[in-house]
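Ticket #4471: structure output looks truncated?

Reporter: J.K.
Steps to reproduce: submitted the chain below (284 residues) through the standard prediction queue, then opened the result file.
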Amino acid sequence: MSASAAIAGEVELVPVQSIAVISGKGGAGKSCLAVNLAVSLSELGRRVILLDADFAKGNVDSLMNIKPAFNLAHVMSGEKQLYEVLIEGPAGVTVVPGANGVIEMARMSQFQHADLIGLFSNLGIDADTMVIDCGSGLSDCLLINSRAAREVLLVVGDEPAALQDAFSTISALNKMSGVRRFRIVANQVETSQQGLDLYAKLMKYSERYLDVLLDYCGSIPFDTQLLQAVKEQQLVVTAHPRSAAAMALKKLAARVDKWPRPQSPGGHVEFFVERLIKTENETR
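Returned output as attached by the reporter:
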C-alpha cells in the first residue's frame, strides 16, 4: 500500500517498535550494522522503516546502493512531504534518506528534531519496526532519538578509545535522556570471547557508576566478506548470506525479533513529542 493511501487512513496503525542504533564514535560499523539489521528483520516478516538520522555523515543510501532524488532536508525546508522522499530499499525496507553533509540538518535544535519525529505520526505508513541510524557521538539528534526510541542498541568495538566512548555515551544518555536499558552488540571482534570480555568491562563500569541495565546481544565477527560487500555497495546478508558476519547479523535480527513489542498507543512516536513539549512547559 502506498504512503499516500496510508495517509488517507486506509491503514490500521499498530504500535511501532523503534530501535535507535548508536555508537560512541565513528568507525564502529554502526551504519553497516543498522542497514543489515533492517534488511534481516524485513526478511523475518517485519515491516521496516529505516531512518538515516546521521545528518552529518549519513551513508545509508550508499551502503544500500540507492539513489534518492530527495531527502529529509527537502522535508524540513517544506519543499516535500515526508511520504514523497521515501524510497524502497532491499527486501522491501522503506528508507527515509538522510541529508548527508547538510549543515543545517546536523545543527537542528532539539525541537526541530522533535518536529521531524512528529511527522512520522502523521505519515501512517504500514510498518511495525523503525530502525534509526543515529549519528556518532553525543548530539541533540542522538539524545532526542534515543529518548524517543523504545530500544537503544549500542554498537561498540574493543579498542580502548571505543570502549571509553561507549562508557561516556551510556552515562550521558542515562543522565540526560533517561535511558535505563541498553542493548549491547560487540562489532568486528576476532572471537566471540572477545565480545563477552568487552561486555564484562561495560558491565563493571555501569554497576559501579550508573543505574542502568545492559543486555548483551552477541557479537559480529571481523569478516573480509563484509568489507568486500561495503566496497561493492552491497549488503553482506544478501550478497554473502553464508559468511560469518551475515550469519551473526541474522542471529542478531532473530534475537531482536523476540524482544517484547509495544502493545499500547504509547509505542507511537507522537507520544514522545507530547512528553518533550510538556517538559519544556514545566521548565518555563
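Triage note (M.O.): checked the attachment and the full C-alpha cell line is present. The CA atoms of residues 27 and 160 lie 13 Å apart.
Status: closed, working as intended.
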